[in-house]
Write a structure and sequence with these properties.
Radius of gyration: 33 Å
Shape: elongated
Oligomer: single chain
Low-confidence stretches: 447-475
Structural class: alpha/beta
Mean pLDDT: 82
Largest sheet: 6 strands, antiparallel
Length: 527
C-alpha cells in the first residue's frame, strides 16, 4: 500500500480524536479506516467486559454478532490475541477454532481455509479489547506489515480513550448544567436549613439522623408549603452521597408525553424534536440522589417503568434497546394521601410500597407552636439584607397575629407574608428608617367581616378567608389556634354547602388533611 493511501486511511481517525461522536459512529469509522488500510472480508472491534469479549462494531459479519458474547476461556484464538504483546497472524492450518465460524456474511456452515489477523488495544497500559481481521482468501495477510497494524491499533486505542474522556467531560458538564439550573431556579432557597425549636421539629431532626445515612427510599409527606424539598436536601446532606449531585424533578410540571424522557432520557430520533441523545435525570443523578417532587402526579404507565428502575437499577432511554445501570437513591415527596390514591387506583400499590420504605411526615406550621416566630425571624433577616435595612423586627401585635394565624399555606405562606409586610411598612414610612418595625396591620392577616357574618375575602394571605387575629387572644395559644381553625373550616363548609372537597380546594389543602384536621377539632360532617 502506498504511503498516500495509508495517510488517507489514517487522517480521518486523527480528526476523530477531537470530535464528540456517538460510540457506534466512532467505532464504525474505525473499522472503515481499518478496511481501507488492510483490505479484508470481515473485521470486528471487541471490548473486554470482565471475562468476556463483547462486539461493539462489526463489518462483514452477520448483524446478530453484535448480540453475542465471547467468553475468553472458550475461544483460544481470542485468548492468544489478548495475551500477545503485539499483532498476531494465525497460520492457515491453525488447529485453534475460529470464533466467527458461521458468522461471516454470505458464508454458510464451516469456514473454508482463510487468513486471520488480530491485535490487542491497550488503554492506560491495560487491555481494552481486540481488533480482528478475517480474509477468505488464504495468504491475503502474508505480506501485511504487522507494524502498520500495531500503529493503527495504537491510534484506535487513543480514539477509544479520547471517546471515554470526552464522554466523561460531557457527563460532568451536563450534571453541572442541571445543578446550576436547579440552583438558579431556587436562588437563596438552596442554602436554607431546617429551623425550629418545637418538639415536632426536634422529632423531624431525629428522623433525618435515622434515615439520612441509609440508602432507603424515603417518602416525604406533608401539606403544601411545609418544606418537603428542604427536608429532602437535609436527608441528602446527611447521607454518604452528600458529595454527589442531588437532582430534582417536579413530576406535576411535566406533560405526560415528556415525563419519561425527562426521567430516563432519550436517543436521537426517538420522537419529533429529539435531535440528539439526551441523558435523563436518573443518569444525571448517578451516584447521588434523585428527588421526585409531587410524585403522586406520575401517570400509571410511568409508575410501572419507574418501579423497574427502583428494583433493578437499570434505566432504558426512550427509543433505545440498551440499558444503563445507575446507582441512585430516590427521595419522593407529595402533599397527597397516596394510600388513598392506591385505593382509588390513580397509583399502583407496588409502586407506593417501593417508594414508602421509610415514610416521613413533615408537620404543618400550625402544629409547631412558637416555631412560627423562629421561622419568621429567618425570613425577616433575608428581607433586611435584601432591602439593606439596619434592622427589622416584629412588634407584640405582629407576633400575636403570627401565632394566631392557621397558616394553611405553611412556611411558604409565612415567607410571602413577611415579604409583603416589609414592602407595605416601607411604603408607609415617611422616611427610610434604619430599623423597621412591622405591626399586625402590615402583616394584613385580619379580614373584615361582612354583615351576614361570613368572612370576606380581601387582600389577605393568598386570598384566604380569615378571622380577626385580635379576637381569640384572650385564650391561651393552643385554644386561640384551635378556635381559629374551627371557624375557618366551618365557614368554608358553610360557603360550599357542606362539600368537603370544594371546601378543601378553597382552603388550598388536601381533602384528606382537611378531614384529619376536622376530626382533631371535633367537627363532624353534617348529615
Amino acid at each position: 500500500m502506498t504511503q498516500a493511501r495509508q495517510l488517507a486511511a489514517l487522517l480521518p481517525l486523527l480528526t476523530d480524536l477531537t470530535q464528540e461522536l456517538a460510540d457506534d459512529e466512532r467505532y464504525r469509522r474505525l473499522l472503515e479506516g481499518l478496511r481501507t488500510l488492510l483490505p479484508c472480508d470481515a473485521t470486528a472491534l471487541l471490548r473486554l467486559d470482565g471475562a468476556d469479549l463483547v462486539p461493539v462494531a462489526v463489518s462483514g459479519l452477520t448483524p446478530d454478532t453484535l448480540g453475542r458474547r465471547f467468553p475468553v476461556a472458550e475461544h483460544p484464538r481470542l485468548a492468544e490475541l489478548l495475551a500477545a504483546p503485539g499483532p498476531v497472524r494465525f497460520p492457515a492450518d491453525s488447529p485453534l477454532p475460529d470464533p466467527y465460524d458461521g458468522l461471516v456474511e454470505g458464508m454458510h456452515g464451516h469456514l473454508p481455509v482463510h487468513d486471520c489477523l488480530g491485535c490487542v488495544l491497550r488503554v492506560e497500559s491495560r487491555p481494552w479489547g481486540l481488533l480482528t481481521l478475517d480474509a477468505l482468501e488464504q495468504g491475503r495477510f502474508s505480506g501485511v506489515d504487522l507494524d502498520l497494524l500495531e500503529a493503527f491499533a495504537s491510534l484506535a486505542a487513543a480514539s477509544v480513550a479520547a471517546s471515554g474522556r470526552i464522554r466523561a467531560l460531557s457527563d460532568q458538564a451536563e450534571v453541572a448544567r442541571a445543578q446550576f439550573a436547579e440552583a438558579l431556579g431556587q436562588g437563596p432557597r438552596s442554602a436554607r436549613q431546617l429551623i425550629g425549636q418545637s418538639a415536632a421539629h426536634r422529632q423531624l431532626l431525629r428522623e433525618i439522623e435515622l434515615a439520612g445515612p441509609s440508602d432507603l427510599c424515603v417518602l416525604i409527606q406533608g401539606e403544601t408549603g411545609v418544606g418537603k424539598e428542604l427536608m429532602a436536601r437535609a436527608l441528602h446532606a446527611a447521607s454518604a452521597r452528600a458529595g454527589k449531585p442531588m437532582i430534582s424533578i417536579n413530576c406535576a410540571a411535566l406533560p405526560d408525553a415528556l415525563v419519561e424522557s425527562e426521567l430516563f432520557g432519550h436517543v436521537k430520533g426517538a420522537y419529533t424534536g429529539a435531535t440528539s441523545d439526551r441523558r435523563g435525570r436518573f443518569e444525571l443523578a448517578d451516584g447521588g440522589t434523585l428527588f421526585l417532587d409531587e410524585v403522586g402526579e406520575l401517570p400509571l404507565a410511568t409508575q410501572a417503568k419507574l418501579l423497574r428502575v427502583l428494583q433493578e437499577g437499570q434505566v432504558q432511554r426512550v427509543g433505545s434497546d440498551r440499558e444503563h445501570r445507575v446507582d441512585v437513591r430516590v427521595i419522593a415527596a407529595t402533599n397527597r394521601d397516596l394510600a388513598d390514591q392506591v385505593r382509588q387506583k390513580p397509583m399502583r400499590a407496588d409502586f407506593y410500597h417501593r417508594l414508602s420504605v421509610y415514610p416521613l411526615h413533615v408537620p404543618a406550621l400550625r402544629e409547631r407552636g412558637r416555631d412560627v416566630l423562629t421561622v419568621a425571624g429567618y425570613f425577616l433577616e433575608e428581607a433586611r439584607a435584601r432591602h439593606r435595612l439596619g434592622g427589622l423586627r416584629l412588634d407584640a401585635g405582629a407576633q400575636a397575629a403570627l401565632l394566631a394565624h392557621a397558616w394553611p399555606g405553611n412556611v411558604r405562606e409565612l415567607e410571602h407574608t413577611v415579604g409583603r409586610a416589609v414592602i407595605r411598612a416601607l411604603a408607609g414610612s415617611p422616611a427610610r428608617p434604619r430599623i423597621l418595625t412591622l405591626g399586625a396591620a402590615d402583616l394584613d392577616l385580619a379580614v373584615p367581616t361582612r354583615p351576614d357574618g361570613e368572612a370576606q375575602t380581601g387582600e389577605g394571605v393568598a386570598g384566604e378567608p380569615a378571622t380577626s387575629s385580635a379576637g381569640p387572644l384572650d385564650l391561651d395559644y393552643r385554644q386561640a389556634v384551635s378556635a381559629f381553625e374551627t371557624g375557618l373550616i366551618e365557614r368554608a363548609l358553610q360557603q360550599h354547602q357542606g362539600n368537603w372537597t370544594a371546601a378543601a380546594r378553597s382552603l388550598h389543602v388536601d381533602r384528606a388533611n382537611l378531614a384529619r384536621m376536622a376530626r382533631r377539632l371535633g367537627i363532624a360532617p353534617r348529615p
